[in-house]
Design goal:
Length: about 400
């Protein structure tokens, strides 16, 4: 995901005054005075696990937010991305993605320690494309990943989901009482600026599967219709230039819009906020989203959003977005034109209200509070179990 508020290296370096370690290394809590957050008086150990590689972790907002939360709560954290890097006997295991969580689940169970499993993606969702019916996520994974996801969700001490949209599917895969803990946004970084706003922006990696889900071609086909009313409007597509890049470039040329659309490619996480702050409108017309971090970051930046009504997007956006038919370029164009037709002051008002929703419901502080309560409940339960075993 492109919308991370910092890299993992920067986060750990800022918190510890040192270079980020390789996965599997252990890191202490921030030194006194290095963080404005309150840390717990005793340092316990936690393992944060994700099966993604190190480079990917540094680009993902989910990893940065939750590692930071564990540090803020006073844990000495080990970041692991493979089974061999997962330490035995941590006080807490915290793992992202249902299928990959089978690895820390094994060590957590054998160590007699709790594990929090975060089901945050389509690997735990029964998703089919709304037009083609092509299966993705859990439905498209091999049998052993399906089994791993079911075991992780069934035997995790606590299962978190990042939206209410996910609850029913995750329950059907075995989670007994999934808890909704929405993803978060660093609202201090993603905030309005005084920079002039000029372009209409969207973000997705230009690889075949992603382009389909994000409706990249629909977005491009909407552009000529917008240009018929606003011929000087510019459009920006941010994302890795993967195997669909040339195809989308050719489509833009065929549509006669190559001079109005800029394929930026990948950008550093530190640049995301600036791009959103300089956008008149942010467009994300996905066929599904389990949350929609980039949408939340755009809203937090005071940028009006044009979005679909799919997945968790409506519960994230509420009444503060322009909803369109994500399968119809005419509908997408109409939504963009409706916002462009507003005065700068009117768009500013729309963006201000959108930001207020994110600050109130999806800030980093909100997620930290939720996870802190969950960890406290887990610790209380573990203590009671220990007392019961001791008296037996």
């Amino acid at each position: 995901m492109l919308g991370a508020h910092a890299t993992l290296t920067a986060l750990l370096g800022a918190a510890h005054g040192e270079v980020s370690p390789t996965p599997g290394d252990s890191l202490s809590q921030p030194r006194t005075g290095d963080s404005q957050t309150t840390v717990m008086p005793t340092a316990k150990t936690a393992c944060f696990f994700s099966h993604e590689n190190r480079a990917q972790l540094e680009r993902e907002q989910y990893s940065i937010q939750d590692i930071r939360i564990l540090y803020d709560l006073g844990y000495r954290v080990t970041v692991a991305t493979s089974f061999s890097e997962i330490p035995w006997g941590c006080d807490l295991y915290f793992s992202w993605w249902a299928s990959g969580s089978i690895l820390p689940l094994i060590k957590a169970r054998l160590s007699g320690k709790p594990i929090i499993v975060v089901a945050g993606g389509n690997d735990s969702m029964f998703y089919r494309d709304s037009l083609s019916g092509i299966p993705y996520g859990y439905l498209a994974t091999p049998w052993y990943k399906k089994l791993a996801a079911r075991l992780s969700l069934r035997f995790g001490t606590v299962v978190l989901v990042v939206s209410r949209f996910m609850v029913d599917d995750v329950r059907s895969l075995g989670a007994r009482a999934p808890i909704v803990a929405p993803n978060s946004v660093n609202t201090s970084t993603f905030c309005p600026s005084d920079d002039p706003r000029s372009h209409v922006t969207t973000m997705f990696n230009l690889v075949d599967g992603v382009v389909g889900i994000k409706r990249g071609e629909v977005f491009l086909r909407s552009v000529p219709m917008v240009l018929s009313t606003y011929p000087k409007q510019t459009f920006v597509i941010i994302g890795e230039k993967g195997n669909a890049y040339q195809r989308l470039r050719t489509l833009a040329s065929d549509l006669g819009i190559q001079g109005s659309v800029d394929f930026i490619g990948s950008i550093e996480n530190s640049e995301v906020a600036s791009w959103l702050q300089r956008s008149k409108i942010y467009v994300q017309i996905s066929d599904t989203e389990t949350f929609g971090v980039a949408i939340a970051e755009a809203m937090s930046s005071g940028t009006p959003v044009v979005v679909s009504r799919r997945g968790a997007i409506p519960e994230l956006v509420g009444s503060h977005g322009m909803f369109v038919d994500h399968n119809d370029p005419r509908s997408v164009a109409a939504g963009i034109v409706a916002l462009l037709a507003k005065t700068e002051e009117e768009r500013h008002s729309v963006g201000t209200e959108a930001r207020s929703r994110i600050v109130e419901q999806f800030s980093y502080e909100k997620r930290r509070e939720t996870i802190q309560r969950i960890i406290e409940d887990v610790s209380l339960l573990e203590n009671r179990r220990g007392q019961h075993r001791g008296s037996a």
